[in-house]
Amino acid sequence: MNLQQLKYAVEIARVGSISKAAKNLYMGQPNLSKSIKELEAELGQTLFSRTARGVQPTRAGEDFLGYARSILSQVESLSQLYRKDGAPAARLHMAAPRASYISNAFSAFAAQLSATGTALDLDYRETNSMDILHAVASGEAELGILRCQDKHAGYFETLCGENGLHAEVLWQYSMVLLMSEHHPLAALGEVPYHLLRQYPEIVHGDLTPVLPAEQQTPSSPLHSANRIAVYERGSQFDLLRRVHGCYMWVSPMPFEVLAREELVQKPCRTENCYRDIAIRKAPLGQPGLDFLRALQNDIANLVQTVPIIK
What we know:
The chain is an alpha/beta fold. 42% of the residues lie in helices and 22% in strands. The protein contains ten helices and twelve strands. A five-stranded mixed beta sheet has the order 4-3-5-12-6, sandwiched between helices. It has a three-stranded antiparallel beta sheet with strand order 10-7-11. Strands 1-2 form a two-stranded antiparallel sheet. It is globular, with a radius of gyration of 21 Å.
């Protein structure tokens, strides 16, 4: 058994797929499968059960992964403690929804730290709400920004409580429409919902709404049948500029991002109100506190420019 095998097992559990884990680890799937089989043979335990949907940890696997994550975290802390230059790195591992206001704040935060000459240990992952909750609960991320509709807030608050997580609402808002400056509807002050039917909607191809089991629905009321599914967020801005009539639903955007990408955001009256919630399991270190403070300042500016639509 070695540290590399621990990392392999933790990554497989995180993504629920050996093929996806192999891609993230920049290695071939056969080599990853072989390494896990060797680890299971050494332990005398089956760590993962193979299903049609991928893989999931067995009970023995869950116990093993708890130890593995703890060991990897301690090794990382030890390496930071004894850096050759003696200077501790600024550490912040976080998971967040695909939101430009968060990624923009994180980029500015990293740039500010780098400009001071501080060594960086930053990890920023964009994913869905359940993955964010799991990442924070398991210790993979120190900070998570969880997104949900207001009507499902109680469900996620319960999940946070069950996982021993502290939750703080950052803000509540209505989604806005993001489109090119040259979109046929860009000149309107507020876009009537029914006018969207004739235009293609861009959606996150690998993310689906996460709802309580009793409230599952086949599709979101904000999603049309005329859509383009995109799996890489950077491509969305390009599509908005180049594909006639494209639009997408987003949380309010920073003005500098809109100007840089030649896009506009427009209100569209719906009954759906959202909230973004900061979650953590342990007290944040100084980098995490500094980032949250900067993010809250950015949110204050967004609230002033894009009021909640009721």
